[in-house]
User: Fold this.
Amino acid sequence: MRFALIVLLSAAFAAFAGQPEWESHIDKGMAAHRQGDYRAAAADFEESLKEAEAIKPDGELVAFSARWLGDAYRRLKLYKEAESHSKHALAIAEKYWPEAPPVAMVLDSLARVYVDQGRQAEAEPLYMHALAIMEKSLKPEHPDLIYPLINLAAVYRAQKRYAQAEPLYKRSLAIMEKTLGQDHLVVGAGLESLAGIYQAEERYAEAEPLYKRQIEILEHSVGSEHVLLANPLERLAEVYKAQGRDAEAQPLSQRAKVIMERAKAIVDRARSR
Assistant:
C-alpha cells in the first residue's frame, strides 16, 4: 500500500508541518519499526500520539500516530491495544479522508490485527472495503492493488473458500507479471499461492506447472540451494505423491530436506558464536 502510505504521510505532515517533537518521535519510531525493534517503535509512537493529541485531539496526526502504534502493538502480540488504536485511527481517518487511500491503509492495519488472531470473518469486510477504495483510486493494473488482492484472497483461503480466493490470486499474479516481470521473486510467491489453491482442490495438473515455474524462478534468482526453495520443492513432491508418482516425488523431498538441514546448521553455528 505504498500509494496509500504516501497520501497519508503527505496529508499528516502538511496538516501540522513544523511540529518538531512529533516529527522526531515519528522518525525514530519508523526507524525502529524498519529494524524490527517493535518495543522501541511502540515507545516512540506512544510519545508521538501524546504530542499529536496535545496539538489536536482528533486531528490527522492522531490518526497517523495511532495507526503506527497499533501496528507496533500487533507485532508485539498486544492485540487488545492494537485493535483499540487501529479503530481510533480508522474513525479519524474516515472523518478526514472518506473513501480515500489513507482509510484503506488503516482498514488493512485493523484487518491484520484480526487475521493474526484467527478472526478471519471480522477481517474479511475490512479487506473488501480497503480493496474497493484502492480500486476506485488506482488504475486496474496498478502494483499497489497486489497486496489488497492477496490479503483478501488469503482470508478466503484460510476459510477454505477456494472458489473466491482463486480469481483474486489470478488477478494479483497478472499484475505482478506485468509490472514486475515474469521472473521476479514476487511472481514466484504469487505462483505458489495460486498453486496452493489448486492443490487444496486436488487440481494437481494445474498446480504442477505453477510450482515448477516457481522453482525455476527461485533457482535463477537465489541459487539452487537457497532455503526459499524448500517449500515449493516439498509442495511439488506432495502433488506427485497424490497422483501416485512417488518416484518423481522422492528426489524433491530429499532435496528439500537437505536444504532445510543446511539452513538449520548455518543458524545453529551463528547462535553458538
About this structure: The chain has a mean pLDDT of 93. The domain at 198-273 is CATH 1.25.40 (Serine Threonine Protein Phosphatase 5, Tetratricopeptide repeat).
